Amino acid sequence: MNERDLTIALALEAHVPLRIDAPGDWADVLRRANVVVSNGSVPTLSMRRNPARRRKARFAIVLAAVVATALVAVLGVGAAQGWWFFKSGATVPTNVFTAVNGRVVGWAPTGRDWFAVYVDRRGSDWCHLQGTSWRMALVETKQLPVRVVADRRIGGAMCGNELSWVRSGRFSDGQHREVAFQLWASPSLGAVTSIYRIDGNSFRLLAQIPGDKVTLGKGTVTVGWESPSRSPHGELKDVYRFVNGRYRLQP
After folding, report:
1. Which of 4, 52, 66, 121 has its CA 20 to 30 A from that of 111?
2. What would the DSSP string read from start to end of 78-107?
3. Element (DSSP H or E) covering residue 69
4. Phi first, then psi: what are they for 12, rounded to 5°?
5. pTM higher than 0.85
6. Which is it for strands 213-217 and 202-210: parallel, antiparallel or unpaired?
7. Which residues pair with 104 in a beta bridge?
8. 206 and 250 Cβ atoms separated by less than 8 Å
9. Neighbours of 137 (CB within 10 A)
10. d(Cα 108, Cα 116) in Å, to the nearest integer?
11. What residue spans of 92-172 are helical by DSSP H?
């Protein structure tokens, strides 16, 4: 047996290890592969499976399975909570694009108008958010030309911010036009859902509610948390009800 034969034998064993209960038959392997050595003889090789290699292989398989499971879980939660990028798959409405002086990130129709959440300018750093501000605007389309009739600063922007969603409706009492949006500071810092009422050409804040997953109902806001440690009340679920002009946490 020469050095080349040993190299081939080890390579084959790495892919198809020999059974412990069966003796190695290198001659049979070469015969079936139609391999003939230079001296015309067929070498034989008896090899036994290495227990240490088997343990390493099992550990590698288990580790790969754990990493894959964790990655799928993180991606799933991130997608559900909007940790990545806000992409609706649609283009910004022309009226919103024309009227709003900034980078529009989310929007929703409210009556004949449009509500938009935007960043006021292009910032610094890798995310282009550093030094900028989140703002919201109401774009009137009833009279031409279209224009912004209400504009309000939400807060400072920074890398890690994500806008999960923007909605409009009559959430609190079913009578007044209202808008809502969820803005994440970062996956670790959490998100806040803000609800505003449209009063003529201005916004009036009704509530700012922290929570990972928020569902707006008629007069209610249901908040879900990934774990009790993320909740300020140590719960997995909080329910707020609109009572006497404000949202109140239910006991």
Report:
1. 121
2. HHHHT-S----SSPPPHHHHHH--SEEEEE
3. helix 51-81
4. -65, -40
5. no
6. unpaired
7. 118
8. no
9. 24
10. 7
11. 94-99
Strands 213-217 and 103-110: unpaired
Place of tokens 């929007």: 107
Residues 69, 76: Cα–Cα separation, whole Å: 11
Terminal Cα-to-Cα distance of the chain (whole angstroms): 81
| Cα–Cα distance for residue pair 135/201, rounded to 1 Å | 15
Q: What is the DSSP string of 181-241?
A: EEEEEETTTEEEEEEEEEETTEEEEEEEEE-SEEEEETTEEEEE-SSGGGSTTS-SEEEEE
Among residues 236, 11, 198, the alpha carbon closest in space to that of 115 is found at 198
Tell me the pLDDT of the chain (251 aa) as tens digits: 555 566 666 666 666 655 555 556 666 766 776 666 555 554 444 444 556 666 666 777 767 776 666 555 544 444 443 333 444 457 889 999 999 999 999 999 998 899 999 999 998 889 999 899 999 999 998 888 899 999 999 999 999 999 999 999 999 999 999 999 999 999 989 999 999 999 988 999 999 999 999 999 999 999 999 988 888 888 899 999 999 999 999 98
227-237 as b/e: b if 16+ CB within 10 A: eeeebeeeeee
